[in-house]
Amino acid sequence: MKRLRIRGRVQGVGYRYWAVGQARALGLRGWVRNRSDGSVEVVAAGPGNALDIFIVACRRGPRAARVEAVDIEDADETVGEGFAEIATL
Fold first, then answer.
1. CB contact set of 48 (below 8 Å; sequence gap of 6+)
2. Quick check: pTM over 0.85?
3. Coil, strand or helix at 77
């Protein structure tokens, strides 16, 4: 399971909606949310290969985004089934 912090022009460009679609297509579980500092946070769990593909995709983001950095760390939390948007922190 990984936690990603995506920085750049990633809010107001459909990044969360896009991330949900990418994650669901790869069969990942977890969530995505905006952060009050302008970044997007993702917690994603699933098979290693699918997670790797998702991380590569997050470095690009949707067309309107301009991703400047993706910080990645191991996450240790419980996620349910599916992948969803959650409230801003």
1. none
2. yes
3. coil
pLDDT at position 89, please?
Answer: 87
Per-residue model confidence as pLDDT tens digits over 56-88:
999 999 999 999 999 999 999 889 999 999 999
Residue 45 contacts residue 1 (beta carbons within 8 Å): yes
Active site residues: 16, 34
63: nearest Cα among 23, 9, 27: 9
Strands of the chain, DSSP E? 2-9, 29-34, 40-45, 66-74, 83-85
CA dist list (Å): 59 to 37, 62, 63: 18, 10, 12
Average pLDDT value for the chain: 97
What structural domains does the chain harbor? 2-78 (3.30.70.100)
